[in-house]
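Researcher: Go.
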Amino acid sequence: MGVRGHKKTAPKKISIGIVTASSTRSLKADESGIWMAKRAKKEGQAVVYHRVVPDVAESIAGAVKEALFGGVDEVSFSKSQFETKFNRPYRDYEMIEGSCWLLIKADNNGALGEIAAIESFGSLNQTAEWLKRQRFKRPVILSYGILIDPGQKESLSQAVPHEGEFNYISEYGFFDSVTACGISGFLDRYENACLVNINEDFRGQFVVLAVEKY
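Model: Structure:
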């Protein structure tokens, strides 16, 4: 969905919860959270709670039982900006506006699937070795982010048995949040499968996201 379509169908009012993860900050000292709350109220939105929790996974998970993640991206890359940032030929990609949202819950009641793993590694070899050790519950579908080059794809595809590849960038076009769009597309398209998405960030870190579709 493009930006215009999103704005046309988006609700005018929503309920907002603000959770700040910090082990040193109090609620009164949470300047960014306070600013967001004031801004949301100024725009006519309802802020239902604002909390500060310790910056540890257990505390964050305990504070949020359900969350809607998403974004709206407008195309802003010129040819020179895109090729400088991603080191990829601009002509090989279709630049689009994109909007994608995922509802994440603590339990699986009514869920389409689950996030089975999020891992990061300092090298291609570490990523491949981790993949070799995994025993995913369902048949694997591989997908790759824009910074994974053909040689890396070959090495990674050999590391894990898989039934196919889902090239969501080719199918949907490119925008900054296209990975989230690829996840929602996978959940809509596949049954009883596991998406293993691999990307590399600008620091050379490899990130693996595994999503199991029930």
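Model: The chain is about 35% helix and 30% strand.
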